[in-house]
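Title: Comparing notes on inverse folding

I've been comparing how different people in this forum approach sequence design from structure. To keep things fair, I'm posting one structure and asking everyone to reply with a full sequence. Here's the target:
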């Protein structure tokens, strides 16, 4: 193999592909990144769960396929100056040159590398920025407990031209709806995608205008855009019936400016011990935030708030509350309540039904 490629294009492609490298490979070849040179250069990684592939333009003098250490290649390319990179392989080694820098890498047995799964049939497409925003809004609520694998995923529900993304860790629930372009207008299905993989994928595919989504039955999902593609195995298991947690009627509603609200929660939470809540007391025209106990450090802050309803006191995990405020795509945070002991719904200010809802369980604090 002998080729030349622009360093910036190579660095972006290597970084994208390296995201699928396993932290603890079960076989040495799985730590490798496969380079296939022809009319273009195709970079591939696969750990039997997640595959990643990037295609970029190169000047190829000799075609071929090799396998090199993926993480080492990523570190080397990231450190190179923004100049053309020459790559030549000879026997069991690859030589990489950029200006005055030369690196020699030992090749891994390319013939032992597993075949990547084929991209499933195209199901539809969606704007890349819209998808990335939606995933970031719901991923904050995904569980991180591997003993409950279904809760570590983001549920994607497809109903015609509507996508609904859902995540929950049992203490909060995030739901985001958006429009997309399906290949089958009458398609109705739902899949469960690992939240970590979906988040990384969405952030990395925003360089293109659209992301194509492909479904392969109940086992595989693929995403593609801007010369990059990835597949991941779907999660199994029964997902909670989250619709019952979405209240349809409320007894009280508060509206606050989102940024000052978040800053006030951060300040008051400084005195909150681990796993202790921030207390919120709503009354006409104001919100009183409190944290700490009488024998400990305490904090109180008063904010202006448009409030409609009977006086109400409620307590939340401060980080969970901040996550929800930060996920809003609105300058105004609206909190709707049914009672101090039932979930509250955090949304932005919008006409009609909001496309994003963050449901937060209150904490029952002593006294």
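Reply #1:
Here's my take.
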């Amino acid at each position: 193999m002998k080729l030349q490629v622009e360093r910036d294009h190579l660095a972006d492609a290597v970084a994208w592909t390296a995201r699928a490298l396993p932290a603890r490979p079960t076989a040495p070849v799985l730590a490798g990144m496969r380079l296939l040179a022809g009319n273009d250069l195709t970079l591939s990684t696969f750990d039997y769960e997640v595959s990643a592939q990037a295609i970029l333009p190169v000047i190829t003098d000799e075609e071929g396929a090799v396998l090199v250490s993926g993480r080492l290649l990523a570190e080397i390319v990231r450190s190179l100056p923004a100049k053309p990179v020459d790559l030549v392989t000879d026997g069991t080694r690859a030589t990489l040159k950029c200006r005055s820098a030369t690196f020699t890498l030992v090749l891994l047995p390319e013939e032992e590398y597993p075949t990547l799964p084929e991209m499933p049939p195209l199901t539809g497409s969606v704007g890349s920025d819209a998808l990335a925003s939606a995933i970031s809004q719901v991923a904050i609520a995904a569980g991180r407990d591997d003993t409950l694998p279904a809760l570590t995923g983001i549920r994607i529900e497809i109903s015609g031209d509507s996508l609904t993304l859902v995540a929950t860790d049992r203490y909060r629930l995030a739901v985001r709806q958006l429009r997309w372009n399906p290949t089958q207008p009458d398609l109705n299905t739902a899949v469960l995608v690992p939240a970590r993989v979906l988040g990384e994928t969405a952030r990395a595919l925003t360089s293109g205008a659209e992301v194509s989504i492909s479904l392969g039955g109940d086992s595989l999902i693929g995403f593609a855009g801007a010369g990059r593609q990835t597949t991941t195995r779907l999660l199994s298991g029964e997902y909670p019936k989250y619709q019952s947690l979405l209240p349809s009627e409320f007894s009280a509603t508060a509206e606050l400016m989102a940024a000052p609200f978040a800053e006030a929660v951060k300040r008051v939470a400084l005195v909150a011990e681990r796993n202790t809540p921030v207390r919120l007391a709503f009354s006409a025209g104001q919100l009183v935030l409190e944290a700490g106990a009488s024998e400990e450090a305490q904090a109180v802050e008063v904010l202006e708030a448009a409030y409609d309803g009977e006086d109400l006191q409620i307590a939340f995990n401060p980080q969970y509350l901040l996550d929800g405020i930060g996920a809003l795509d609105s300058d105004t945070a609206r909190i709707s309540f049914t009672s101090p002991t039932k979930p509250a719904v955090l949304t932005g200010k919008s006409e009609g039904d909001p496309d994003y809802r963050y449901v937060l369980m209150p904490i029952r604090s002593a006294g």
